[in-house]
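[[Local backbone shapes]]
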Amino acid sequence: MCGIAGLIGEWDAEAGRDSVRSMMRCLETRGPDGEGIASWDGAVLGHRRLSIFDLSSLGSQPMLSADGAIGVVFNGAIYNFLELREELERAGFVFRSRSDTEVLVHGYEHWGVQNMLPKLRGMFAIAIWDSRNRRAYLFRDRLGVKPLLYSIKNGRLAFASTAPALRAAQFDDELDDRSIVEFLEFGYVTDARTVFRGMQKLSAGHVLEWTDGKVETRSYWKFPSVPSATGVSFNEAVEHTEALFLDAVRLRLEADVKVGALLSGGVDSSLVCWAITKLGGHVDAFTIGTPNDAMDETSDAVATARMLGIPHHVIPVAADDVPDVNELISAYGEPFACASALGMLRVSKAVKNEATVLLTGDGGDDIFLGYPEHRNFWRAQRLANKLPDASLPFWKSMSGLVPRVGVMARAAHFVDYATGGIGAVANAHDGLPVYWQNGLLGERLSGLSVSQRSIAWSHDSARHLLSEFLEYDRTTRFTGEYLTKVDGGTMRYAIEARSPFLDHLLWEYAGSLPFDVRLHGGQSKAVLREIARRRIGERVASGAKRGFGIPVGRWLAGNWGTNFRTMMEDSQLEKEGYINSKNVISFWKQCAATGTVPNQLWYVYVLEHWLRMHRATAPMHSESLFSSTTG
């Protein structure tokens, strides 16, 4: 787990190395254990190291081939690297280190890109420079666990693990207004956009190839389509899932540093800890306790740890201990307002001195259908398949007569989904309409919206609603919010987070299961709950889904209220035309009187903090390396 950066193309050699060093300074928290840089005619690669495998200098990066012609920098972990190493040793390759990075060097030499990528089982952002062919490759793992951003200008390629690092490459840092609108809608910027114009995120499961200034991106992995039916019974699905899951946990226990596991009171983290004990692993579990808070899961976690016989530590954090918003801003490269990220930062800071690798339960809900909306959309899809084609125009003509309040609002939305499909789902989001209705946006954002709100309503979409939602969610919330939250929060404290539920083989299998298997008996996450029932007990299996609650709305109405108003009275966002601060303050007063404020004001608060920090840290370069066609 590290930070990577680099420049590919024709550069002034010294200026290129200085620029990569500037990028690496922005990546220090991702890799506090060392720094490396290597250069060729046409390429500079940089790396910040968090030592996980082979803690000696032999595991340092950039890692080169024996003749120095090939260089690799890599962020992440190749979990099956020992298996791949044995295969390469049989082919005659000699290894100097016990690092998974060296498998990438020799794997590229032996198999080439096309044949190597399918063999990799892990999370990764990888850059390879091949000076023999003057060709560079960037790869991102199948699910997008690890981030990788790049920019192309005048035939040159720059890349880095974070947006601030890429910006440090003397890069044009003009903000993208449409990305700002997207942040205000969702509280994060999706993988389809970046907050800076000219930057792009390499999509999950994609490879970028650069050859003499020409760039091509292509997909190397596709998520399996969901069949309407298979011959797999529910019991067979449970047994095969358990086998795949145990193997995924086994691989993620491999490390040359201390490994820990997060343990909440829920199904997923409990299954991770059960699997560790089943495999004979010696790992301590950690629970973040919030005493006297309704969301506290300590008692459930303690009971699970005792039953499993796993060493367990409860780290208490006061529920009213208000975190520093500036920590949130510094941990994430783009504006990011996922409230639970504050909890992730708390957890990471608390665990840092106890473990360097942390196994988590992330991803189980996403592929095994554990969120409430999954069942809701599945039911709407089944209703859609019983309705005639004329149901959409009929409902549109009648829906305005239904009061959108309380139970009636939920019922009306359900019919929206059953007639309008993913377009109705996207438009049900309460983001931008709150700004529009209360006049919160400035002239700069006038008339702008997000592409998601332009998705047409379609009854055919409604008949495939859950499948379409999973694809929509995977390219928006899953990568933009969930994966970003864990990566940014843990890497802020140099912790490598590993989730067995993000194993791509497990995803391929679970994704091939029909919805009536994954939602067997109408129960969310039925397959995982059944494993928990058989291996841990009914208490865990039937437990309600809970989360680490962060009451930012209440804090913004209370503890943060004075600071919010002070910032809005001298708002950088208003100075640049993004908001109308007078209306923002008026809306805040109205909402704060109730004791809480909506997410939209929290997003404005985070964006104001982010923009001020962004302006205060502007790169001090007289001329960008990207500004001309020659080095």
In short: The two ends are 32 Å apart (CA to CA). DSSP finds 27 helices and 17 strands in the chain.
